[in-house]
Amino acid sequence: MNTEKSPAILEDGGLSNPARAIGLTIVAISMFATMDALAKYSSETIRVEMVIWGRYFFHFVAMVLMLPLLGIRRSFHVNDPMKVTIRGLLLLGCTICFFTAISLIPLTDANAIVFVAPLITVALSAFALREKVGLRRWSAVGIGFVGVLIVLRPGFNEIHWAYLLVFAMATMFSIFSLLTRSLNRTEDPVAMLFHTALVGFIGTGMLAALYWETPSLREWGLLMVIGVIGGISHQILIFGFRYASASLLAPFQYTIIIWATMYGYFVFGDRPDIWTFAGTALIVIAGIYVWIRERRIKPTSLTQH
């Protein structure tokens, strides 16, 4: 007689395996940080528009080469083309905003501000979705934005316009994450990844046509690595979402702060001061508190971050 316990089933039909999901998420986040560092490094010698193009071009090439293995029908078939396309456009917008921003500002600062995304989600749910948001969550949102002000220190430092791009990226990423979780219920992760690459390939192709700058052999290599890492990391993250709810995985996304700080310090010589660390800590604490409240209020929700 088989005495093994059957794994729990998520509401979207996926298998519940928190340990595997957490491991996949941490690996994916470390790869995102590596891709960001390579993008910043590459933008020192080649236009950032070319870096963005390379990220999607080589992602798409890799997907095309893998079509015989993955299956042509599987890669092309989606149940909701409109939502899948919007998801791809959101990620493309995130990439354009973030790669442009980190070519101009420190990695640690940019990644700290990105994590206002969960707080933006709370605000959007209140005003756009008419959801009831209590005083505690509004307080967490307020504390998070105080953290942002500490990182930026308006009035003490000149605020670079690139920080606005990070805020735009955070807003788009919060919507992208919710949409990814929703689509995981009906879409094949391989198809989602392929269409993400396709949308980015078409969009950045038009961008590259305007700003083309022929890369050197070394730069071609960097662009290829960025594209391959981008594709693999998103595939890993998609699979992570299939094994656990997004609300469970949300806190582990904050590990990118550690990677960004290390890359910033050892590769680019960025030395965050005590105020940057303090502001980042407030943002992270506020985000984790929102996550805890969401899990208590809606313990079975699959769309809270």
Pick out its properties.
single chain; 305 residues; mainly alpha; 14 helices; disordered N terminus; disordered C terminus
Total beta-strand segments: 0
Largest sheet: none
Rg measurement, Å: 19 Å
| N/C terminus separation | 41 Å
Strand content: under 5%
| Average pLDDT rating | 82
Structural class: mainly alpha
Oligomeric grouping of the chains: single chain
DSSP helical segment count: 14
Low-confidence region ranges:
1-13, 299-305
Shape: globular
Level of helix content?
Answer: over 70%
Output the helix-strand order.
HHHHHHHHHHHHHH
Secondary structure: elements and pairs:
Elements (H helix, E strand, L loop, with lengths): L17 H25 L5 H18 L1 H4 L1 H5 L4 H22 L4 H8 L2 H11 L7 H18 L9 H22 L5 H23 L5 H27 L2 H4 L6 H11 L7 H24 L8
Tell me what you see in this structure.
The protein has 305 residues and is mainly α. Helix content is 73%, strand content 0%. It contains 14 helices and no strands. The chain has helices at 18-42, 48-65, 67-70, 72-76, 81-102, 107-114, 117-127, 135-152, 162-183, 189-211, 217-243, 246-249, 256-266, 274-297. Helix 5 runs antiparallel to helix 9 (162-183) and helix 7 (117-127) packs across helix 8. The radius of gyration is 19 Å and the shape is globular.
